[in-house]
Amino acid sequence: MVDQLLTHFNLCENRRMTERDIPNSTKPKPNRSRSAWHFLPPLPVQVSPYFNWPPDITSILKWMVSGWFPVSERLIILFLAIGCSFFFQPSLETSQQLAPTWVAGLLLRNIALMSLVAGGLHWYFYVARKQGDERRYDARPFATNSRLFTFGSQVRDNMFWTLVSGVTVWTAYEALMLWSLANGYAPQLSMPEQWLWLVVLIFLLPMWETSHFFLIHRLIHTSKIYQRVHALHHRNTNVGPWSGMSMHPLEHLIYLSTVLIHFVIPSTPMLVAFHLMYFTLSAATTHSGYQGIIIGGKLILPLGTYHHQLHHRYVTCNYGGLEIPWDEWTGSFHNGTDEAHKAFLAKRKGKAGA
Length: 354
Known about the structure:
Elements: H1 2-14, H2 32-36, H3 57-66, H4 73-87, H5 92-95, H6 100-127, H7 154-182, H8 195-220, H9 223-228, H10 249-255, H11 269-286, E1 292-295, E2 298-302, H12 306-314, H13 326-330, H14 338-353
Antiparallel strand pairs: 1-2
């Protein structure tokens, strides 16, 4: 299975993408990278300045603020979490007893949220074709008749694993945490007195996300776990919104175990909702396949992350995110430039030879 996937990746790497739908202002230049990708963002890919020395406070504040404002996937998901915590989440009194009724309510809510975000983005980019291929990283069509995918279709495969397994595990973790908060097994923030701590934890969440994701991602890339579990997610060399949460059930359990940190770090029901929505709904946005939503030629809402798009094509790079540079520290970072790609290929060739 792994050999087949790697062969497929190499074929993808050598295939030239069409340029007819790219505006003149973003026409690719005739070098290796731009012949392999339909669109490239400004390179090299930049990681956060948090660990630069000497510290640059201006850059740090700019990075932190730009990740949220003026409009971002994080901010949208936060507002969704706040709204859901008021109207579509059981009270702590109700959560003291695990009951099929309120757990089923959470499940239906989460199915609706995932369908709204992943389904809405899929419709916008790939059905209605509102942007054509403008700012699309990889212009190849999704597979519609392939033995590699469940039901033969990439989109149906992704929807099945996302909704049947992913949303179910998401709901189970949320129900567990609400029940634990309600019964005193997990520590709570005292609201509204500790509102400042809540704000701090919300802003720190992306850093925890990057660290947790990197660690578990490296784990599931070991050969046996990859072949039996993670290879299902890596069927998607060319990703779309439904690809983000298309995983093996065991991977869903590992990926969403991030929320268990609230058995140590005090929380609230809203923070639990936001934490899980951030890990699930942002998986759909970052796998959109596009740099983001363009209006009037301007990037209004950044979405897809090119560094993770590189991971899906080349597999053994960019295991984490950009908030904490784990990949730089461990030698697995690919910044998208030709120089980085040559170094990556040489390193992979050396490992294959060994």
